[in-house]
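Narrative of accomplishments. A recurring question from our advisory board has been how the design workflow behaves on a single, concrete structure rather than in aggregate. To address it, we present the structure tokens for one chain from the evaluation set, followed by the sequence designed for it. No filtering or post-editing was applied between the two.
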């Protein structure tokens, strides 16, 4: 048999201290050194097989360390040790650097404060060192030997009493097992009620919070057991990174286990340690084998030996532990008051209030994957090409060995995302169950009201499956119950009775909700996508749209209308809650926070309310700016093609903006927000306009496919979630086809022009810069040069005089030029405040002439500044010129009449205004 890549030959071990055993309470353990697969000398401890440490138990110990290290970094790695005949003869545990065990009751307390915190940590240190992570994993693996010598702030060691519901039979068990407590197979089952009082409720014999160990061995009492007990009061601590609390850390640790669990990944990791070693527990005596078969028949049958590998066997054990953990944590309802007098939040509340937890875990995963890739690449570089699957020594110091796994053992982001989706979905099952139950109760009351014979409970109730039921394997099972319907033979009312009609609609409404929920909850983990989540809550929205108003109308004026209103509040809150992207894009809140948003109330606010429109438009631009250039350009082009382009069947249609906008997208270097703002600023707002189509379809896309989070960097500098801008009412309107694109387009155009975040060519910012530069440049001209420009424009303007169109501005303008008390800019401003901007107007002729001369001036200047470059950009395009022409009158009003600068002295402002030029 090939040696598993992370197993050791006995000959690789170098014994230290002349083979003397390390003092322990149970087994002989020897200090050793060996060279790992990365060529680095590792220190550790060799534990040979013994009657109380049989081969199968040694394999369990190694498997436990592999499983734990998938979720927790601070776990001692264990490896099998084989002789030359490929027989397992012991295990080697790699030493944890600076491991200092915690103090037992009888150990002296260090006088040095820092040393004391390492070995007898206060509750503050327990929080800082995240002991909650240890507590969570010890519960998951059913550990029974977590005495002080096996735990340190640096990590956990000694795994031969993990999975104690099984291993106590292999090991021989304790005298206290089944004597003063439940047998291990019952005691070690993970139950939701244990979460009420952790760490005090850890079932292990030597759990840290025990005042006296369960076996009465007082020498193994933790010296700081009272500090561990305080964790159950949910203490918190303010750190540089924010406030941390025990419950926050604990649920984060459980979430990490729940979403990182991947049978394929764990199997791939176990293969590095066990290879194809067969499942064989013949090392146990007949009594032990019989007991294992009796208590755990799923795992232990003689027919399994030689047929299964040890990994096959272990995966069944690990999967069952995970299933226990899943049901206990995901469905945990919280505790209003635990034995320490504090409340414990439900797991669904934790997820709702800490959406950042998922991102934090994914960041850790990315970091680990990068380290595994580096280790694997380094290994591949030096591997024997003839035997690529074998690890060989890298003859240089390296810390990569702990991360040296083949790619099958790396974390898969897609799977983690899907499992988080599953965990989040299932944690909310009782929201749906509660709404369906209330709808069912209202249905029963209405049937009783209309029936000759009331319904009895046996007709409506089905014995619901409980969380402790071993047959519960899917959350969807919690929704399976009998439905109610109307028996026409038992109703005692007219067929057109409004309450009867309302009852019929209510029954159909509930059926629609239940079908949507069951379809969603029956999806397997690998089928869960954002699109499936959207499909679910859109079905809820459709059901509300189909039935809510009709039922209200039928029950109007009755007491049932009030009850139905209460039911609708729950259903609307359910609708608002079941949006995975909204959840992931929301900001954190203290985990003890109750429901953060009353979605029923939010949905009552019209999506056309001014504050909703304003915030939604702002959020749309924020989202657009987070898209990559290709995605944004593609979205705009698709909207133009599908909803704006002229039909080949309509020769009269005119979609003049298609070509210029398409070209602009190709050439513009602005960010996406400025590009969208420019497009909106250069168009109109009619129902068929491109602007209206863009806002309508971009907003629909935004509320349905919002990126997980986005930052308002230029305004509020914070992560903004969809619900924070009340987008739920906008989303609701889009889903039901009630979105008012006209109001939103008007607001978007105004926002695109006026908001200070925009610097595009048609923004107020650019218009202001342009006008300031133009008036400053005009004032820099000699008076004679300025007058020549005006007169040249007049000369071009006045030949257009005709009997039907008299040009009257020339005389007034010439008169104004004779008044030497006014500055160049003052005269120009007053010219632009009067008149029109059509193609033959004086203002248009003068403005184009000014642009031409400014272009010439700028072109011969050295290094024109940004404002001058803006002038050049405007002057190059007639469309830009026309847009700026329309703004001249507005910006001219900001100019004041002032005395023209003399050769010496300074201009002084005067209050005289010229009424007409």
């Amino acid at each position: 048999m090939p040696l598993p890549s992370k197993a050791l030959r006995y000959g690789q071990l170098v014994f230290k201290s002349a083979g003397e055993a390390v003092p322990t309470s149970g087994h002989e353990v020897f200090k050793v050194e060996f060279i790992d697969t990365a060529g680095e000398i590792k220190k550790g401890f060799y534990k040979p097989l013994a009657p109380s440490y049989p081969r199968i138990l040694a394999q369990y110990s190694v498997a436990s360390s592999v499983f734990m290290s998938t979720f927790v970094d601070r776990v001692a790695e264990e490896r099998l040790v084989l002789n030359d005949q490929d027989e397992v003869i012991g295990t080697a545990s790699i030493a944890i650097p600076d491991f200092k065990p915690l103090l037992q009751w009888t150990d002296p307390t260090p006088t040095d404060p820092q040393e004391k915190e390492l070995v007898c940590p206060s509750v503050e240190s327990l929080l800082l060192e995240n002991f909650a992570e240890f507590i969570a994993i010890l519960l998951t693996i059913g550990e029974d030997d977590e005495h002080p010598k096996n735990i340190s702030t640096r990590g956990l060691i000694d795994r031969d009493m993990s999975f104690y519901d099984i291993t106590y039979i292999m090991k021989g068990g304790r005298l206290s097992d089944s004597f003063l407590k439940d047998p291990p197979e019952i005691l070690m089952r993970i139950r939701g009620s244990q979460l009420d009082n952790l760490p005090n409720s850890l079932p292990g014999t030597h759990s840290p919070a025990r005042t006296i160990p369960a076996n009465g061995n007082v020498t193994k009492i933790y010296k700081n057991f009272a500090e561990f007990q305080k964790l159950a009061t949910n203490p918190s601590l303010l750190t540089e990174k924010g406030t941390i609390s025990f419950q926050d850390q604990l649920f984060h640790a459980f979430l990490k286990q729940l979403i990182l669990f991947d049978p394929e990944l764990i199997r791939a990791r176990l293969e590095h340690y066990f290879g194809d070693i067969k499942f064989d527990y013949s090392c146990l005596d007949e009594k032990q084998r019989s007991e294992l078969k009796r208590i755990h028949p799923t795992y232990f049958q003689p027919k399994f030996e030689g047929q299964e590998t040890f990994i096959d066997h272990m995966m069944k054990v690990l999967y069952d532990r995970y299933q226990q953990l899943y049901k206990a944590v995901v469905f945990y309802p919280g505790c209003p008051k635990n034995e320490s007098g504090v409340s414990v939040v439900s797991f669904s509340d934790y997820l709702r209030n800490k959406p950042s937890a998922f991102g934090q875990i994914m960041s850790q995963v990315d970091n680990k994957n990068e380290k595994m890739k580096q280790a694997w690449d380094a290994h591949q570089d030096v591997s024997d090409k003839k035997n690529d699957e074998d690890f060989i020594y890298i003859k240089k110091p390296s810390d990569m060995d702990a991360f040296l796994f083949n790619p099958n053992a790396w974390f898969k982001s897609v799977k983690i995302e899907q499992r988080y989706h599953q965990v989040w979905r299932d944690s909310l099952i009782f929201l749906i169950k509660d709404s369906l139950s209330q709808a069912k109760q209202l249905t029963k009351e209405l049937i009783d009201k209309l029936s000759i014979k009331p319904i009895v409970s046996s007709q409506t109730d089905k014995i619901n499956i409980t969380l402790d039921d071993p047959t519960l394997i899917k959350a969807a099972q919690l929704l399976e119950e009998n439905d109610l319907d109307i028996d026409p033979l038992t109703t005692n009312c007219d067929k057109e009775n409004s309450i009867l009609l309302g009852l019929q609609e209510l029954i159909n409404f509930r059926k629609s909700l239940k079908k949507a929920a069951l379809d969603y909850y029956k999806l397997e983990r690998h089928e869960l996508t954002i699109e499936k989540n959207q499909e679910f809550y859109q079905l809820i929205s459709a059901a509300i749209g189909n039935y809510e108003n009709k039922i209200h109308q039928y029950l109007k004026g009755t007491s049932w209308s009030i009850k139905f209103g209460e039911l609708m509040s729950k259903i609307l809150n359910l609708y608002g809650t079941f949006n995975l992207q909204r959840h992931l894009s929301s900001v954190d809140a203290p985990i003890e926070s109750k429901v953060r948003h009353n979605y029923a109330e939010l949905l009552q606010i019209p999506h056309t309310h001014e504050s909703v429109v304003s915030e939604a438009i702002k959020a749309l631009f924020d989202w657009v700016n987070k898209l990559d250039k290709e995605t944004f350009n593609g979205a705009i082009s698709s909207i133009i093609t599908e909803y704006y382009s002229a039909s080949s069947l309509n020769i009269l249609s005119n979609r003049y903006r298609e070509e210029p906008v398409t070209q602009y997208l190709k050439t513009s270097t602005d960010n996406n927000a400025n590009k969208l703002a420019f497009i909106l600023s250069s168009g109109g707002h009619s129902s068929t306009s491109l602007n209206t189509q863009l806002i309508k379809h971009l907003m629909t896309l935004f509320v349905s496919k919002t990126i997980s989070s986005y930052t308002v960097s230029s305004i509020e500098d914070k992560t903004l979630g969809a619900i924070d801008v009340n987008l739920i009412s906008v989303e609701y309107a889009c889903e039901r086809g009630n979105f008012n694109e006209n109001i939103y387009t008007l607001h978007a155009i105004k926002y695109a022009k006026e908001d200070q975040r925009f610097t595009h060519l048609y923004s107020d910012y650019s218009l202001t810069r342009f006008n300031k530069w133009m008036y400053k440049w005009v004032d820099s001209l000699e008076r004679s040069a300025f007058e020549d420009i005006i007169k040249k424009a007049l000369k071009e303007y006045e030949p257009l005089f005709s009997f039907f169109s008299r040009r009257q501005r020339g005389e007034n303008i010439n008169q104004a030029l004779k008044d030497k008390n006014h500055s160049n800019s003052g005269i120009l401003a007053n010219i632009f405040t009067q008149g029109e901007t059509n193609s033959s107007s004086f203002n248009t002729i003068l403005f184009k002439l000014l642009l031409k001369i400014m272009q010439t001036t700028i072109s011969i200047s050295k290094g024109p500044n940004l404002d001058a470059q803006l002038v050049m950009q405007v002057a190059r395009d007639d469309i830009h010129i026309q847009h700026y022409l329309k703004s001249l009158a507005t910006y001219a009003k900001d100019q004041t009449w002032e005395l023209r600068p003399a050769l010496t002295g300074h201009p002084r402002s005067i209050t005289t205004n010229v009424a007409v030029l």
